[in-house]
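Retro notes - structure team

What went well: the batch runner handled both jobs without manual restarts.
What didn't: labels got mixed up in the shared folder, which is why I'm recording both outputs here explicitly, each with its sequence directly above its tokens.

Job 1
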Amino acid sequence: MACIVDRTDMEWILKMQPEMRYVDSHNAFVGTFSFSARYRDLELISDHYKLAILCNEFPNSPLPVVCEIGGRIARMSKILGIDTADLHVNGDGSLCIIRPDKFKLWYPNGFDIRIFERHLTTHLYWLSYRERYGKEPWPGEEHGGLYSFD
């Protein structure tokens, strides 16, 4: 069930995210992930995060594992006075970007790098909006601790 990132996927994401680099020895994309997005009638947000996107890190995960490596979310949690878990960061430092029971809604045909980039953009928009305005642009999902991809 692990997601497979093939050569075409690698080329596409590196074209869409030119400040990311693929590190073959770690099977990971590392660098600055930039986006420009709007949710409904809310503000257009153009922003970026330093990320490590680890492919095939966990065999039971159908998505890459994403970690924010710039310390921004940790700073955000201190400024907002909330736990990083409330900003959808798992105990191991990875981002909680989807509950397993919601996977088929985003990925009806299995992992797709284009959907993943859009999905990650949505997640990062939510974080950026929360950072700027101190509130969620839409209600965050419950954490998926009770769920499994198996």
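Job 2
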Amino acid sequence: MMFKNSFRLLSANFDKVWKLLVYQLLSWAIVLALLAPFYNTILSCARASFEAHELGKIFTSGTFYGLNVGYSLSSVCAAVIDFIKAIYAFSIGMGIYLLIVLFIVRPILSNVGKYVVCEMTYGYMASGSKHGFTSTLLRTLKNSLPFACLKTLYVLPFDALIILSTFGLTYFNSDAYSYAMPFLIVLVPAIFLAFKETFVAGWAPAMIVFDYNVVKGYPKGMKACLRRGLRVYSTAFIIYLLAFVLSMVIGLYSLIIILPIIFPLFDIFEMVMFFSSQGMRFYVDADTILAPQKLEEVDKIEDAKYLL
């Protein structure tokens, strides 16, 4: 039901897809501006790695499908490694700066956007109302920024595990493994990404629904996730699995469509999970209010004002 209700809410709030997409593009513009002093070096290293491993042949429709996936993944991973080596060979300081911008600054900006979408979704689920992205961003910045910073640091070990597991898939070489590779490249990242999502899914919703600070919100969110831990994990796994399968079958260019939908979908899914775990009623569309089975906590009298 969480999967179904998340898609229903996404359909009723599809404007959030475009608003978050514009925000993400602006975030990338900030990242590119921060990297501007080293633009020529980064571009030359990236171009050399791209051409050395003939990645142009990979980024075409359908080339990640079937047995080609092993060669494609190996080429991409090798190109990334060569790019990092070239950057650090040119300047260690620039290499460290690049990693900070890409793995610290960029995720912080992304997580601020996540918090804003969760806040907007809360307004719709609780009272059927819609709020502007910019006004919500400015209003919640005192909460979203600490959340974004701590979450970025917290998930670094998860991200490292996901990256290492993906690179690890390229170190095996046999005929039998080449047949298993198309399945592994879908299953392994989906397993670890769903595991990561399970550990952070309730964090932002707990802060928003109960007006907790970033420290107090995490255990409250984890408690909500653990109530339905298997369902949370399985739903996240299915969403990631569908995204990977579609990108492989249709081609990597399909990510242009898939990614803008996946990001707000997960934000909405987290709110649905939290409301359902708390036994709180919520709108799924303008005419329908769901009343999940109540567990340890039920709606409080003061929460009734949000329900029309």
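One thing worth noting from job 2: The first strand starts at residue 282 and ends at 285.
We'll revisit the folder naming next retro.
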